[in-house]
């Protein structure tokens, strides 16, 4: 029995869940006691192997043994993990959740395993371990139907959404816009803010990304309403550090005065957190604001920090946005008559992007884009977008 159980562990580690299930089932046949634990674990492996019918049968056989199956007491450990997540310390949270998952596997008490795996997948994604997050989310989604754990499914899908934000994929419920993959990301994050299930465990992602919903409104409307601003100011006082930091960041984008102080507050909060993606977004937003305010030298410092982190995370669309903003801070151009703002508008419009989409990407109004575009046409001696696209490849930074 011990040899078979050891073989099941080896097989599981190599993603051979079907082999693990078979070994555990054989172990249950020769075991004197503990058959329920072995059959329950076999059911989990069968489910992960894509054999739900076999998994359900194994669970029925496990229950029929009549043996007790005591779940480990993990309430305090789960509460500790949630507190760490509220403080933005996601690496510490995922380590605690990994230990809990290990105890569930060891005891066969897998009913709550999908919930813990889905929480850990969220923590891994927020900490920047995208591959680990995807693997845990997939396991949670596969195991959850065994016990009908809808909360685990919801949280694992939240993780998938966050991973889509980083990669630039639109997801099933968002219309793709290849010209603005970061806009897709913001829309996905705003979508999380709209999801407010009754269960308190699922409320955190919605609240955490509420500032992103307001950022989407800011991009669309060029300003926030007094009510929106009041909401943001209220969130800056949140005891959940990621919410407060994100609120200060968005305030920095919209405040007519004191933007630097808003970004500084967000940065100070991030000093005690382990949120590389969010931290990079603070630098990106700060750099964008500094560039729009005309301080290109300071903007470059912020944008380089953002670019390097996005590169480490393989967050391609966000990396491209940071690089585009960096290009806009160039001191000298190969076409001395074209300003940085004009060149940036020309680069985007020449790819076939509409005026409205260009305005959204650059945090400008459509009228401002048209103003810059008319000057570009005059300086380059072109009459329309088609001619601009033809001459554009010769433009480059010195």
Features:
single chain, 398 residues, mainly alpha, Serine Threonine Protein Phosphatase 5, Tetratricopeptide repeat, 4 domains, 72% helix
Concise overview:
The chain is mainly α and 398 residues long. The chain has helices spanning 2-13, 17-30, 35-48, 52-64, 75-86, 90-107, 113-127, 130-143, 150-167, 181-194, 203-208, 210-221, 226-235, 241-254, 259-270, 276-292, 296-313, 316-327, 340-349, 355-362, 366-380, 385-391. Helix 10 (181-194) crosses helix 12, helix 14 (241-254) runs parallel beside helix 16 (276-292) and helix 16 (276-292) runs antiparallel to helix 17.
Proportion of beta-strand residues: under 5%
| CA-CA gap between termini | 71 Å
Tell me the structural class. Answer: mainly alpha
Rounded to an integer in angstroms, the radius of gyration calculated over CA atoms is: 26 Å
Series of secondary-structure elements, N-terminal to C-terminal: HHHHHHHHHHHHHHHHHHHHHH
> Which ranges are low-confidence, i.e. pLDDT below 50, for 5 or more consecutive residues?
172-178, 394-398
What share of the residues lie within helices? over 70%
